[in-house]
Design brief:
Distance between the termini: 97 Å
Number of strands: 7
Number of helices: 14
Helix content: over 70%
Largest sheet: 5 strands, mixed
Strand order of the largest sheet: 2-4-5-7-6
Structural class: alpha+beta
Strand content: 5-15%
Order of helices and strands: HHHHHHHHHEHHEEHEEHEEH
């Protein structure tokens, strides 16, 4: 059991290795292996170079110098023998040259064989034998006067021959040893060259294998997981949100894949939520269409079916009021007055509701509207109340906007009528109409010096049927500003009350500017 745990632990730890760690470990191992192989290669090259130097600088020169030493001794023997036979001093020239060559060859051999104990021993044997031959035979003959060395040569001929034969054998042994040493160095050089070549080939093979392993490791550990991850990501981005993102490879790539999978699942959840919301919106749209249909049906009923009985009730109560006024008691006249007033207000309320429901449905003819003309018509329609209140109206030049002329006329009529109606009792109404361009919109303001609207009611006044005063103080149904808000929003604008304006009220609203009309070119004009 403990062995299994030990065997599992390294795999678990390697499972957490990132791409950077895998690359670092792989590069470290490759560098160590290359360093070892490089060291072996340098050793093989150094060994080959050392053996080459030994062969070229020591063994071959030593053998050649041994041959020169032999030649120098042979020249000495030839000169001594010629001088011994003839007694002429000229025959001693080879002997003298041989001595000089001998000293040079010995000096060179001692330098070359300073690290070769066996070679030094062979050289010592040759030199001892040569010295004995020179002392016992060659030098006495060379020292003899001219004409007399023949007797000395004849007396010592046998001894000199035996000694020189021994010298020849010693030189032959020396040269055999030098040839063997040279051949050994050559064999070592060939072996070192083969070893060097093997190591270099091994280095090349290992480098090739490392390259293959590195590319295969990168392919399996990095490029293949990244390619698969990219393919999964492209599949998901292409709309296959059900396609899972499977991560493989090092830990960081697996974490990246897990993050992408979590993102895919979140997108899938968001998509499911969006689809569900879309279904709910479709249901709400269907419900809204049904509600609009019911609203249209209600508008039809209000404009036809409810109007007729309401007119009858109003007519008969008014008849009762005219015919029996003063004939009944005061309370009865009050009740009849209540009935007439209620019927009239009910009829006014139904008409206002009908107009409110028609905003955006009945009047929806968007075109360029000259607001100067619209406001002029509105002022004409309100001329009686304006004259009665002695209101003074100042207005800026108004632009042309894009919208429905009927609805915009209702908007301006409600705003100006409210400014006149809610005037202050102590001062004549002063109304100012302003217009300013604000990007793609026109910003308008209708200001007055009336009773004003408290800041806490700035939103409430735009709610349908919300009144701030009793019907006795200011008559109306409480639907005017709600209709204004619906009209501005239908035209893509906003409406609000300026809380900083005093005294009175300042209502600010926006409308879309009219789109520029493109002038047809000559070709289009001709075609028209």
């Amino acid at each position: 059991m403990a062995t299994d745990v030990k065997n599992r632990r390294p795999r678990t730890s390697r499972a957490t290795w990132t791409t950077q760690r895998w690359l670092r470990v792989s590069a470290s191992l490759a560098l160590v292996l290359l360093a070892v192989l490089g060291g072996l290669g340098l050793w093989a090259l150094n060994r080959t170079s050392g053996l080459t130097d030994e062969l070229v600088d020591v063994r071959s020169p030593a053998l050649a110098t041994s041959v020169r030493l032999e030649a120098a001794l042979v020249n000495q023997e030839t000169g001594i023998r010629g001088y011994g036979l003839t007694g002429e001093r000229s025959f001693l020239s080879p002997y003298q040259e041989g001595l000089t060559d001998q000293r040079a060859a010995v000096t060179e051999l001692r330098r070359l064989l300073k690290d070769d104990t066996k070679g030094q021993a062979d050289l010592a044997t040759v030199l001892d034998t040569a010295d004995r031959w020179q002392r016992t035979y060659a030098q006495p003959i060379a020292d003899a006067p001219a004409g007399s060395p023949a007797m000395t040569s004849a007396q010592r001929a046998g001894q000199g021959k035996d000694t020189f034969d021994t010298l020849r054998k010693a030189m032959a042994v020396q040269q055999d040893h030098q040839r063997a040493a040279r051949q050994g160095a050559l064999d070592d050089l060939r072996g070192a060259a083969r070893l060097r070549d093997s190591i270099l080939v091994s280095i090349a093979v290992v480098i090739l294998l490392l390259t293959i392993l590195i590319f295969e490791g990168l392919r399996r550990g990095v490029t293949a997981p990244l390619a698969k991850l990219g393919a999964d990501a492209r599949a998901v981005s292409g709309g296959a949100f059900e396609h899972p993102v499977v991560a493989t490879g090092p830990a960081d790539l697996r974490r990246l894949g897990a993050d992408m999978e979590a993102m895919r699942r979140r997108l899938l959840d968001e998509l499911a939520f969006a689809e569900e919301a879309g279904h709910r919106l479709d249901e709400q749209a269907a419900e809204l269409r049904r509600s609009n249909s019911e609203l249209e049906q209600f508008a039809y009923v209000a404009s036809h079916d409810l109007q007729e009985p309401l007119r009858k009730v109003s007519s008969f109560t008014q008849l009762l009021q005219r015919r029996y006024a003063g004939q009944l008691d005061e309370r009865a006249d009050q009740y009849i007055g209540f009935a007439v007033d209620g019927a009239n207000r009910m009829q006014k309320l139904i008409n206002d509701l009908l107009e409110f429901s028609r905003v955006g449905r009945v009047h929806n003819d968007h075109r360029e509207v000259d607001l100067d003309a619209v406001v002029e018509q509105t002022l004409d329609a309100l001329s009686v109340s304006i004259e009665e209140s002695k209101a003074r109206i100042v207005r800026d030049p108004l632009p042309t906007v894009s919208g429905d002329a009927t609805q915009l006329g209702i908007l301006w009529q409600n705003l100006i009528a409210n400014a006149v109606k809610f005037r202050h009792a102590d001062r004549a109404p002063e109304i100012r109409i302003e217009a300013a361009r604000d990007g793609e919109l026109w910003r308008f303001a209708v200001s007055d010096n009336g009773i004003g609207i408290a800041a806490e009611f700035a939103e409430k006044v735009f709610v349908i049927f919300q009144r701030l005063h009793t019907k006795d103080a200011y008559p109306g149904s409480g639907i005017g500003l709600a209709m204004c808000k619906k009209i501005t929003e239908f035209h893509g604008g906003t409406i609000s009350i300026d809380p900083d304006h005093a005294p009175g009220t300042r209502i600010v609203f926006t409308l879309a500017a009219a789109e520029p009309v493109r002038q047809p070119d000559s070709a289009e004009s001709a075609a028209a």
